[in-house]
Write a structure and sequence with these properties.
- It is built from one helix and eight strands.
- By secondary structure, the chain is α+β, with helices and mostly antiparallel strands.
- The protein folds into two domains: 45 residues; 119 residues, no CATH class.
- A four-stranded antiparallel β-sheet has the order 2-1-8-7.
- It starts with a helix and ends with a strand.
Length: 196
Amino acid sequence: MLKHFMLAAVFVLLATQANAQEAKTAEPSRSARSSDAKVADTSKNIVPLKVTVVFTEYDGEKKLSSLSYALFLKADESSRFFGKVRMGVRVPIWTGGKESAVQYQDVGSNLDCSAQVAEDGKYLLDLSLERSSIYPNSSEYPAASKPEERPQPLVRQFRANLALMLRDGQTTQNTIATDPLNGHIVKVEVTLNVVK
């Protein structure tokens, strides 16, 4: 009888240890599944966006130029993601002196944009725009002329900081500026698209 009792106790002890071992191995897989679910939830909330910015210059009703830039961003509800575009050229400017010194100035376009998911299917865009250009014919000179006789280039600058609330596929024309020297009008259009 004692032998049967001891044998039963051994079986109960072994079964208890086996159950404890199974619980330990099942615990990491449950936590792994819950962390996978969290990653999946996070990836569902991230929205890839394409923001297109177009600078258009007019002389009265006549369109003179149109420059388009695209930034690819991602947005979610909890954080901001930044995109940047830098496009331009370094222009030599003669500064004079005995050494015939030359300085270089960056001329072109700089765009910085952040996006965040807002309410009702809208997205909040914070845009910082900077565009500089050389006035036509302001830096043309004969190749043989001396540096001090060359006309210095005139550099036009445009800067804007915009806070926009846009839906997928929406375009807004939100900035209009007039050049004080030649009266040309610069318009900025921004389009937001969800990348699918």
